[in-house]
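step: validate -> pass
step: tokenize input -> pass
step: predict -> running
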Amino acid sequence: MSIYNPSSWGRTRRPKDMVENVPASTQAATFVTPVSASSLSNTLAGTNAGENGYITENQRFLHLQIENDGDDDTVTVYGYNYAFASWAVLYIPVGVQNAAHTTAELAYVEAKFTTISGKKMLTIPLRGVDRVAFVHDGTLNDMVLRAAMSTF
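step: predict -> pass
step: emit ->
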């Protein structure tokens, strides 16, 4: 009897079993450049890294790793839609609406991260955002951001 070994770990229609003997593959880390909110280009004509944000290719999730050594940096994720031709702070859902949420807005919070010491890995739902940008608070000391996208 032979054991099935999956040959691909890409996008699939069904779950694949988890096995240890699949060869590990790595790639170079994808670093992103945080910018100030005032330098984001609504026309996507910026000439410096990060000013036009990063294209999402209609992926559903943003995977973000933030590395920092304390509480001296803040980063906020911004979203851009081609239909609106402008940037805005991305808000993420924090749970189902309940009695404490007297408006729909209370069920969402800014995708803003501060007071980070060490590394944090986050998954942020995008649902239709065409581009994302990473905005710092003006004093980017030693924060490192890595980002990736996925559909599932």
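step: describe -> The beta strands are 54-55, 61-81, 86-89, 91-93, 108-110, 112-125, 131-136, 144-150.
step: cleanup -> pass
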